[in-house]
């Protein structure tokens, strides 16, 4: 007899399906772990195959077969093993790899080496195919990981959190009632970025009412400022379920200054500034290969694709990995660097992703920190890693991103360093600082596109910073 299924609410049905999808992805990831790892060009089985084929196809017809594989068997095997060991290092077979004694004593030396060369080439091609398949498996695994993380986040947003009970619920109920709202239920949730959210099921006492009273009630109970997560400003008469997000403790203002290479009308650098749901501020810079319109097209496509994935909720690190895997599959090599600065408006933490770009600078009040790149642009090598740095930012700190044209002067002796130039500019608005830096950096004869991006971080709760950043 089949067990009767319990009817689920639409929200419960969504949670159940997300959970099943998450479990299936987890099982796929477990399977992808097995059989991973690089293999040598000549495995034990491949070496045995070469031995067997050589003896059967070439050596058995030789008049010295019994001598080579009888009395001198160990010596013959050592000779073949030495040739194959050198071949696996150089990925080829050459007659000069054999010893002088072997070349003189082997009756069928020429056909012997030709047969070994053909067998090795076949196994080497098979090894190359296995490596390509291994790379494809890694691409699929990265995509599965990103989907798994996205499913986890979606499920947490729908189900996780703690129900508000006890004294806090009574205080919240009374505070809302005084402002004309009946509280049906309340849940608290803190996400992985440290952002605090309260979800309320409400019904106005009469008619529809503005959400302003709810914000005041939450501020009184929790002692912090909130905003409506979905932007709705009304609680409808039939009742509403609304999420309220704690206002971030940090604000970020951006500035930019750009110059195209002399003689070019289009700058090959592309930039972007975005605030994602008041949770994080993102600053992006991409420098296309070369200059002009084609470089600008490549960098613009990279920025737009990266922004699209961030908007979909994909973690920035996995978004970069997915972009890299996609670019590897393109027939035409069109490279563009990518620098991404992701600043948490809740904690002031900076995550800096660098894929082939030039140095990024963090200016503190009395010092400048240079963060050097070491990776290549996305899509260059099958197995490549990207630089990821985490830094804690404080009130007044600046994040400065530059395209490589801004640092060409450092190759000339006697020039000041970029750190000295940055410390010589008076702090202020992000836009004014970017313009001053563009003027202060020497311009070399080997001119290039030049871009300066500046992000100024302000602690909203620091005394004197309660007004919006200019």
Would you mind describing this structure in some detail?
With 470 residues, this protein is α+β, with helices and mostly antiparallel strands. It is built from twelve helices and 17 strands. It has helices at residues 10-33, 44-57, 65-71, 73-90, 100-105, 109-159, 166-178, 212-222, 292-311, 316-328, 418-423, 430-440, and strands spanning 162-163, 181-190, 196-204, 209-210, 226-228, 234-235, 240-246, 250-259, 269-276, 280-287, 338-344, 349-355, 360-363, 368-371, 387-392, 398-402, 450-459. It has a five-stranded antiparallel β-sheet with strand order 1-2-3-7-5, covered by helices on one side. The chain has a five-stranded antiparallel β-sheet with strand order 8-17-16-13-14. A five-stranded antiparallel β-sheet has the order 9-10-11-12-15, covered by helices on one side. β13 and β14 form a beta hairpin. α7 (166-178) runs antiparallel to α8 (212-222). The longest helix has 51 residues, at 109-159. It is flat and about 110 Å long.
Q: Top keywords for this entry?
A:
five-stranded antiparallel β-sheet; 12 helices; 41% helix; alpha+beta; 470 residues; flat; single chain
Q: What is the mean pLDDT?
A: 78
- Low-pLDDT residue spans: 1-9, 466-470
Question: Mind telling me the C-alpha Rg?
Answer: 32 Å
N-to-C span: 69 Å
Helix/strand-derived class? alpha+beta
Series of H and E elements: HHHHHHEHEEEHEEEEEEHHEEEEEEHHE
Going across the biggest sheet, name each strand in turn.
Answer: 1-2-3-7-5
Q: Strand fraction band?
A: 15-25%
Total strands: the figure is 17
Helix content: 40-55%
Shape, per Cα inertia axes: flat
Q: Main β-sheet: number of strands, strand sense, barrel status? A: 5 strands, antiparallel
- In DSSP terms (H or I, runs of 4 or more residues), the helix count works out at 12
